[in-house]
Structures are given as C-alpha cells and as structure tokens.
Design brief:
alpha/beta, binds adenosine-5'-diphosphate, about 775 residues, Rossmann fold, about 45% helix, elongated, 5 domains, 24 strands, single chain, 25 helices, five-stranded mixed β-barrel
Length: about 775
C-alpha cells in the first residue's frame, strides 16, 4: 500500500473488466486473468512506461465474456505491479491509482480501449470528517474482532490511515463486502458522502457479523448439549446394565418382605402382591414404575389393622376434660355420656358429634381432649373451601400425580385405624360440577356404609367404622341438611368477660408461660391487665386473639429473660402498652353516644356477634336520605321506614313538623368495610334519628335490636344469644329486645342475664321512652 510516484494518467486506457472485486485507489489486489485477449492487454500495458490500465467491474458476473464488456462507468486506473504467467492463466498484482469515469469505448480489437476522465477528489478535513473517521475506525475494529476470517493486524493498520478518502476505501476493500456495495462506494467521489455511506455499510456488516456469531455459538452449544446428553445416556445405560437390575430386584424383595410382615385384610394383600409382581416386570426408569411404586407404598403404610386400645375410664376422661377446659359443663357432660355409652356397648355406633360455635371457643381442644382421654390418636383435616369430591375420595390413579383423598391421608397420618378424626369447617364445604363433596362425606360418616369406604386412588376398601369422627362448624345453617341429620349438634357460645378472665388465669397464661420456656415465677399478670387485654386488644367471642396477645407478652418477657434480665416481671394495666403497643379497640361508648344522633345496635355475624354504632346527621339540602356503610337493601329499607315513621309521628314526639323540608338526612353505620344487612337494625336507626331530631342523646350503655314496621310495631329477630353476649363483652348494661324474643333469653348464660337489664318491647314508643327519656 505504500505510495508510489504521481502517475500521469492518459485519456485513453486499455480496459480490463473484472468479475468479483472492486479495486480502490491505493489498494493492491491480485487479479486472475484467463482470457487470451486480456493477457495480451496486460502484456502490452507492461511495455508502456507507466504500466497503466483501466479496471472496472462487469455489471453481471454471470454473463459470458463479451466482445464489448458491459462494465460500470466508474472504475479505477491501475498500475500493474507484478505479472506472472501460468499455463492457462496469468496473475497480476494491480495497484489502484485513482477513480476514473469511462466515457467512451474507442476500440474493441484486439482488446477494448476506453476514453477516460480522472476523478480527482478534494482532500480536506473538518470536525465532521474527523468524527466520521473515528466512527469508522471503531466499527471497523469491532468487525475485525468478531469476524473469524479477518487478521487482527487490520485493527492496527486502520489506525495508521489518516486520509479520510483512503480510510473509507480501505475499510470497504479489506472487508468481505458484496461487490455491488463496494462499487457504490467507489462511485462516491465526494468525501463526506463516501464516509457516510461507509459508516452505513460497516454498521450493516457489524450487525451481520454479530448475528453470524450468535448463530454459530448457538449451533455450537446445541451440538455440545446433544453430545453431552448422548454420552450421559450411554453411561447411564451402562450403569443401569451393571447395577440397575440388581437394585431393582433388591427393592422388590424388600417390598415383598414388608408385605409379609404387614397386617392387612386378605383382599388388600392380594392386590398388593399382584401389584408388586407387576412392578417387577416394569422398567425402573419408566414413569409407570414410580406410579406403581407409590401405590404399593400407600398399601403398605396404611394402618389397615393397627388400632390403639381404648381407655374407657370415665373418671379419668372427666379429669382430662376439666384439665383443659373451664366450664363448658353441658358439652363435657354430653361427651362423657357419649364415652360411657361406648364403654357399655362397644358395638353401638354413637352419633357423630358436631361442635358449633365461633372461632376460639374450644372446639379443637375438646376434640384433642377426647382423643387423649380415650388414648386414641388425633387427626384433623379442614374441609373449608373443598368443592371437589376427589378431595374427599381421591383421584383415580390414571391421573398424573394422583393421591388418595383427605380422609385416607388423615388415616395414614394418624397411623391407626381408630383415631379421633376431626372434620373442621364442615359448614364451609361447597359443591360444583366436580361432584358433591358432601355426599362423599355422608358415606364417610354413615356407620352403615363406612366399614367399606372406597377411595378412588386406593380402589381397595378401607374400614372407617372404628374411627370417631367429630365435626366442627362456625354456623349451623350452611351445613347441608343430610349431613346435619347425621350429627348431634353441641353448641359452644362465646365467653363472657368473667369467663375469659378465669380461663386466661387458669389455662391460657400457664400454658403460654410453659410454651415460651418461662417459669411461673418469671411473670405475673394482674387482673387489670388481663381485663385490659380482653377489652382493648381483642374483640371476639372466643379466645384466639386473647391467647395470641398473652403469647406476645410472654414472648417479649422471654427475650428479656434470655438476655439475662433477672427477677420477676409483672404485667399490669399501666405497663401493658410496653408489651402490646397501643390498644386496638377503644371502649369509649359513653363518649360516642354523648351527642344526639348516635345509637348502639347489635349485629349477628358468623363469628359471634358484635355491637355497632348507628350515626345520623342532618344538613341543609333537598329532602334526601343518604345511607353509607355498605348497607344491604333490606337495611336501607329499614332506614326509610324509620324516617317515614318519624315524619308521621313528629308532632307527638316533639319534633319540628317540617324537619324534612330543606334538609338532607345522612345515616352512617361505621366499620364500613363489613357489609351489613337484615332488618334487625330498624329500631337502632329509628332511635338514632329520633335522638337527632329531638336533639337529645341516647342513654349510654344501652344497645338494641329489632325490626320496625311502618306502623311502629317491633318484630322479633334472630341471633339474640350471640348479640347479647357481644353486648356484654362490650360493656353494655341495658338491652332493648322485641317482646317476642323473650323465649331466647333462656339460652343466655345465667351470669350474663344477671349483669344486663333487659327491656322487652313491642312498640316503637316504648323503646324510645327507654332510650331517650324525656
Ligand atoms: P376452636 O377450635 O373452637 O377455634 P380452639 O380449641 O383452638 O378453638 O381454642 C382456642 C384456644 O382457647 C385454645 O388454646 C384452647 O385451649 C383455649 N380454650 C378454648 N376454650 C377453653 C375453655 N373453656 N377453657 C380453657 N381453654 C379454652
């Protein structure tokens, strides 16, 4: 590439057409020449002092040699550096001198001669050119780096080029770029245009190289992976051949041995034997093998004939029930009767017990106590949200990943065929198109049928007749009637504050102290602290949150003890916040009802009832009634009725006749996230409104429930017991109830009946008389 002297290029030059490459000025290129006339052309050229010729690309390389070659107009004047002749062809080294335009073919014989015009390029430099040069060098180097066919020296050579035109030409000519594109660059005489085009071309090339590299790498990886897998598989085969068969035999022998030792009914044994035989014929690496293997494991592990021996000592059972449970006398009595009947007549299949009550009222712990008293295993499954019969009865083994249903799984977990088996949340099973799980449950619970319970997975029948099933539910109503008929319902209501204090002192605190690795002398709860936890940190019918909060206190004391703090910690009303943070509920009933327009109602919920505040307010407006707090339609109607009633009776109640003119009334029932419905808040909304309009606050510590009619009658409502318990929990001292609910008072525990004053009313006027004394 070194520069030679300045050539003087004549007007007429012999024309050498080339097929595959473009020669750029200053570049040296070897050219193979085969045609006799062109060899002659070169020989003649060599005779001239400058040894010059015109070189240009033929437009269509596929075409045969022609008399008059069809070449591009723009070509290169070249100087022949070297010439050597072989038998069929000659090889020359041609060096480009400068771009030329071919304007005319002047003769064809013996070889073409053309009239040319030299295309001189203006060499100059500016910022833009400089920048473009840097870009070209950068991209060029990247291409060289990626491309496996280019010598890395090119990266250094390109750096030595300082003329923009030459740089562009060199970049294009040294890369493996399509001839047509090279020709286009040759045709760019103007420097900036040439540089721009070269950049575009190089970027394209870089992209192509990158894709090429990625494809290559991918192909390489694929080949590597395939090869690796092939080798591994071959090795595996060899290993299996060496060991596999032996292992498999040992495994099958082991299974047969296990089967021999396992006690099971004959019909199950036959199935197991057959299945083991089948297993011995299946290839151990097949999917079928592991399916069969899992099935055999289930058959071998289920407690077909393993039972625990019952302890039917009734006195001991009573002690155990008392040890874990405060009060609950009715329930305990019924449980003891149940056990006594079992003792006297072991063949008698007693009813299935179902504990119904709010969470945390001791259902699970009673079940556990029954198991302990009898010396049986205890298992528990939750039926909540089960919609598919297969969850009870299992999936057929033809399904991938099939397993037995929850009943059989529970039995396996128990490890005996006569556990106490608790079916939790029986009120929460659903049904859909996949079959009715409750009908499968019926079979489980039916003593006439459950000695031969069939699980879809097991296929062989399992005898459930020795199992003691106990169900639990929060609510009675949603339990499907056929199921409910099979069971004897034992209701557990929520606990009063007094009971909770007692249970906390005698059961929960000692239990939590033990569970947290503390000693009784480490920690004392004052009664005030316990009450404060009950009142201000929990609001529940049961004991779950109380237990959790007491646990939280024990935990933080356990940390202190573990950190080496000595002595005894007392938890009092005053320092409770240190352990539990700010109270979660406030009991400021008095404060809330101190303004006119607020009344306390009682609502029933599946988790045990609660009190709610109804607030009413009046503002300028256009006679509309606004209701908020996620109220259902029935509740909205109650509000309308209350308002209409008050409008009709305004005068006799001492309310301004025209209160509704030019005003809007808004009734809100807070705790808005909980949807509320039902007619039982009628009297509460009416009282709140009356209080607002009479401008007198409602008596504090008074709660009420009852449906109201347009004519002012108060009709009975449901859930009285839970509502009253909730009211008592919240510190309510007086309750207004519909007269017709009188009979429900019998269900309310004695101590609560004594602590609350009940007003039984049949008309709105009576209720208002009590709630808003004149
Ligand atoms: P459920 O199953 O009804 O939701 P749990 O049996 O889990 O409730 O009871 C919650 C906690 O309260 C348990 O620690 C339990 O021992 C305790 N508990 C419930 N009722 C009593 C009771 N009458 N006496 C003593 N502890 C009780």
């Amino acid at each position: 590439m070194e520069e030679r002297k300045d050539f003087v290029i004549p007007d007429i030059l012999p024309l050498l057409p080339v097929r595959d490459s473009v020669i750029f000025p200053k570049m040296v290129l070897p050219l193979m020449v085969k045609e006799e006339r062109y060899i002659r052309l070169i020989e003649d050229a060599l005779k001239s002092p400058e040894r010059l010729l015109a070189v240009s690309l033929v437009k269509d390389p596929e075409k045969e040699y022609e008399e008059v070659p069809d070449v591009y107009d723009i070509g290169t004047a070249c100087h022949v550096l070297k010439f050597s002749r072989g038998p069929d062809a000659a090889l020359i080294m041609a060096q480009g001198i400068s771009r030329i335009r071919i304007s005319l073919i002047v003769s064809v014989e013996p070889y073409p001669q053309v009239k040319i015009e030299e295309l001189k390029e203006a060499e100059y430099m500016d910022k833009e050119i400089e920048a473009m040069m840097t870009t070209i060098k950068g991209i060029y180097k990247q291409i060289v780096q990626i491309s496996p066919h280019l010598p890395p020296e090119l990266m250094h050579i390109i750096d030595t080029v300082d003329k923009p035109g030459t740089l562009a030409d060199m970049a294009v000519s040294s890369l493996n770029i399509d001839r047509k594109k090279q020709q286009q660059i040759l045709e760019c005489v103007e420097i900036k245009e040439r540089l721009k085009n070269v950049i575009r071309l190089l970027e394209e090339e870089l992209e192509i190289q990158k894709i090429g590299r990625d494809i290559q790498e991918k192909v390489k990886q694929d080949i590597d992976k395939a090869q690796r897998e092939f080798y591994l598989r071959e090795q595996l085969k060899a290993i299996q051949k060496e060991l596999g068969i032996k292992d498999e035999m040992a495994e099958i022998e082991e299974l047969r041995e296990k089967l021999k030792k396992k006690k099971m009914p004959d019909h199950v044994r036959k199935v197991a034997e057959k299945e083991i035989d089948r297993l011995s014929r299946i290839h151990p690496s097949s999917a079928e093998y592991s399916v069969a293997r899992t099935y055999i494991d289930w058959l071998l592990e289920l407690p077909w004939m393993e039972s625990t021996e019952d302890n039917l000592d009734i006195k001991r059972a009573r002690q155990i029930l008392d040890k874990y449970h405060y009060n609950l006398d009715k329930v305990k009595k019924r449980i003891l009767e149940y056990l006594a009947v079992r003792k006297l007549n072991p063949e008698h299949k007693g009813p299935i017990l179902c504990f119904v009550g709010p969470p945390g009222t001791g259902k699970t712990s009673l079940g556990k106590a029954i198991a302990e008293a009898l010396g049986r295993k205890f298992v528990r499954i939750s039926l909540g949200g089960i919609r598919d019969e297969a969850e009870i009865r299992g999936h057929r083994r033809t399904y991938v990943g099939a397993l037995p249903g929850r009943i059989i799984q529970g039995i396996k977990k128990a490890g005996s065929n006569n556990p106490v088996f608790m079916l939790d949340e029986i009120d929460k099973i659903g049904l859909d198109f996949r079959g009715d799980p409750s009908s499968a449950l019926l079979e489980v619970l039916d003593p006439e049928q459950n000695h031969s319970f069939s699980d879809h997975y097991l296929e062989v029948e399992f005898d459930l007749s020795k199992v003691i099933f106990i169900a639990t539910a929060n609510q009675l109503d949603p339990i499907p009637a056929p199921l409910r008929d099979r069971m004897e319902i034992l209701e557990l209501t929520g606990y009063t504050e007094e009971e909770k204090v007692n249970i906390a002192k005698n059961f929960i605190i000692p239990k939590q102290i033990k569970e947290h690795g503390l000693k009784e002398e480490n920690i004392q709860f004052s009664e005030g602290a316990i009450r404060k936890i009950i009142r201000e940190y929990t609001r529940e019918a049961g004991l779950r949150n109380l237990e959790r909060e007491i646990g939280a206190v024990c935990r933080s004391i356990a940390i202190k003890v573990a950190e080496g703090e000595e002595g005894s910690f007392s938890v009092t009303e005053e320092n409770l916040e240190q352990y539990l943070g700010k109270p979660k509920y406030s009991l400021d009933i008095v404060e809330r009802v101190s303004v006119p327009g607020v009344a306390i109602g009682m609502a029933w919920t599946p988790v045990g009832g609660e009190i709610l505040f109804v607030e009413a307010t009046i503002m300028p407006g256009e006679k509309s009634l606004v209701l908020t707090g996620q109220l259902g339609d029935v509740m909205k109607e109650s509000a309308q009725i209350a308002l209409s009633y008050l409008r009709a009776k305004a005068e006799s109640l001492g309310i301004r006749n025209d209160f509704y003119k030019n005003h809007d009334i808004h009734i809100h029932v807070p705790a808005g996230a909980i949807p509320k419905d039902g007619p039982s808040a009628g009297i509460t909304m009416l009282t709140a409104l009356a209080s607002l309009l009479m401008e007198k606050p409602v008596k504090p510590y008074l709660a009420m429930t009852g449906e109201v009619t347009l004519r002012g009658l108060i009709l009975p409502v449901g859930g009285i017991k839970d509502k009253v318990l909730a009211a008592a929990r919240s510190g309510i001292k007086e309750v207004i109830l519909p007269k017709e609910n009188k009979k429900d008072l019998d269900e309310i525990p004695e101590n609560i009946r004594e602590s609350i004053k009940f007003h039984l009313v049949s008309r709105v006027e009576e209720a208002l008389e009590i709630a808003i004394p004149r």
